Amino acid sequence: MAGLLKLGYLPKLSPGRYLAAIRAFRSPVEARGKDTLQVLYGSKVPVSTLCEPGADLRVLGIGSGSGDVDIIMLKKLLQRHSSVYNRVVEPSGEMLARYKALVREDTSLGAVKFDWRQQTAEEYFQTKEDTKFHLVHAVHALFDVEEHDATLRKMWEQLSDGGYMFVAMQSDKGDCPRLRSKLWEEFGQGDRLKTSLRTSGDVKQYLDTAGISYVASEDEISVNVTECFRDDSETGKLVLEFLTQTPNVSSEPEIKSMALEYIRSNSSLVDGKIYFKAINEVILALKDCAKE
Ligand SMILES: C[S@@+](CC[C@H](N)C(=O)[O-])C[C@H]1O[C@@H](n2cnc3c(N)ncnc32)[C@H](O)[C@@H]1O
């Protein structure tokens, strides 16, 4: 693929590097501890989710990754529900192995039955399944799926009446999507929704068009991006690939210089470190069949 056409194709062209880039971008945030994940996700889980008496609460996770966020969500649900059936759809064997290791180590998850599906969302939605879920979530996974709108539609179809869809994405108001939007304006080709340059705004647009009401909440997070300015830093390269969603961005001088220039003039300098502002947005939609 020619240079500029790689913009927004990091997950598709280089999935292994993409997972490493996510880790490089997120690890300073996750190092702040489980409380951060609790605030960003746990506190937003709808515990009042309706479930038939005596039945398991059924949860479907799309693109669950290594399970850190799922586990925070499951623990919140276990405060109200005595048993949970959790189906995990995740294509990466490496991510699933990490998730399973976390589950093995955590005795508080004994009341959760895990059903592991090593599949993409597209493969999963092709299987004939009648199970309906009380909670269907995709946490920062809609960047990766093939068809953004079709995935949301299929997630919605998986919900039982009174169930919730929970989607987390980066908000358009944050610095990363603004940088990506600038790069796309300059170098983008084709349909942006075919790339990973997607935001919470795209999710809301889909829901508005489909006539689905929702509530949204945002949290601001500062991310240290200082390493991007060190040419010899492997972490810096990965973070820049994450920010631009472009594989091997160091060999794309036009994208790299515009990105670094944008970061330099839109970041804050604190104690010699450069911080970019990310805004995490959680969108929650309740399925009320009487209104549909
Ligand atoms: C940014 S990570 C988010 C992981 C996790 N939900 C979290 O927030 O920690 C995106 C995940 O989506 C997975 N993924 C990639 N392509 C996918 C697809 N087509 N369908 C479902 N998941 C996919 C990746 O393997 C990765 O684990």
From TrEMBL:
Transmembrane segments: none
Entry annotated with the keyword Methyltransferase: yes
Keywords of the record: Methyltransferase, Transferase
Alphabetical GO biological process terms: methylation
InterPro entries (UniProt xref): SAM-dependent_MTases_sf
Domain of life: Eukaryota
GO molecular function, one term: methyltransferase activity
Name this protein carries in UniProt: HNMT protein
